[in-house]
Amino acid sequence: MIYVVIVFLWVALLLYLVMGGADFGAGIIELFTSTKNKSRTRRIMYNAIGPIWEANHMWLIIAIVILFVGFPVIYATMSTYLHIPLTVMLMGIIARGTALTFRNYDAVHDNMQKVYNKIFVYSSFITPLFLGIIAGSAVSGRVDPQATNFLDAYIYSWLNWFSVAIGFFTVALCGFLAAIYLIGETDDDAERKGFIRKARIMNVAAVVAGSVVFIASVKEKIPLVQWVFGNIIGVAAVSAATISLIVLWYLIGKGKRYIIRVLAGFQMTMILLTTTYRHYPNIIILKNGGHLSLLADQGTEKTIQALGIALLAGSIFILPALIYLVWSFQQKPEQADGDVHGH
């Protein structure tokens, strides 16, 4: 049953990266959109993410609950030594959700809309930045349970070149996902070309940020190159991601919006597989050379069994409802477009 729980944890993280990443990326795209095009981009973006933006956080909640219930030592370590970036990320999620709600449903439209817009776009940038920082910190070997001062325990555990570089890499990935997703949300040729251009920019940003991650890993003496290229799974995943990226850019000009979304999600899957496979089952690498493992540091057997059963039973209800939700909101833009043209 422990492997069932681990699979659910990995899939929850993947779905949050793919679905929540595209959600955050929409705000990042808006942040880097010219003033004259912001309102149009905002309209397209809201039609795309508005109906399900809150559902995306379900995957993060599931991952947190799995860690809290099934791996209490790992959860306690992360929430203690990484509590600062965790707090910033959660504040970003709250601020972003609040701003999105008020800027679209506020009964009075006044100058506060500008405030809501700024909160939304900047929190859309900050949240994935610190999500990436947390992920990088977990494997950076900087978490120090034997630290005797505040800086070593709670600052240097996450404030380092490697973790920050992964944070910016995550931001670029989210922007790329959103741009790919938004390409298929408009029938206007100029708007579609604009999103394709943004996708290219975010793609370049991701490549640059990814290169910085490898440079930072060498500087911080983190064996990232060995993790990625030192095993056949890593090499295969990187190769598959590269090939799918080439195919994606070929199909963008063909108007294959659903296929390019699948390919973008596949790339995120390969990236997560590459970065987690090599040091599995270790989820946190400590500064003293030790580690916290999903197998060695799990909860009691009865707890894991109950958690596994709950996850399996819950998926029977959650997954069909989620599929229906995604399907239903995909119908909305077409109806709205028909109303506009009919009018």
Note down, in words, how this protein is organized.
By secondary structure, this protein is mainly alpha-helical. It has one domain (2-223, 295-338). The protein has helices at 2-31, 35-49, 57-70, 72-81, 83-105, 112-139, 150-155, 161-183, 189-219, 224-229, 232-252, 257-277, 301-342, and strands at residues 282-285, 291-293. It has a two-stranded antiparallel ribbon. Helix 1 (2-31) runs antiparallel to helix 2 (35-49). The protein starts with a helix and ends with a helix.
Ordered list of secondary-structure elements with their pairings:
Blueprint: H1 2-31, H2 35-49, H3 57-70, H4 72-81, H5 83-105, H6 112-139, H7 150-155, H8 161-183, H9 189-219, H10 224-229, H11 232-252, H12 257-277, E1 282-285, E2 291-293, H13 301-342
Antiparallel strand pairs: 1-2
Helix pairs in contact: 1-2, 1-3, 1-6, 1-8, 1-13, 3-4, 5-6, 6-8, 8-9, 8-12, 11-12
Key words describing this protein structure:
mainly alpha, 13 helices, two-stranded antiparallel ribbon, 343 residues
How would you summarize what this structure contains?
By secondary structure, this protein is an all-alpha fold. Helices cover 79% and strands 2% of the residues. The chain has helices spanning 2-31, 35-49, 57-70, 72-81, 83-105, 112-139, 150-155, 161-183, 189-219, 224-229, 232-252, 257-277, 301-342; strands spanning 282-285, 291-293.
Strand order of the largest sheet: 1-2
Structural class: mainly alpha
Molecular shape: globular
SSE succession: HHHHHHHHHHHHEEH
Number of domains: 1
E-strand count: 2
- Rg over CA atoms, rounded to whole Å, is 21 Å
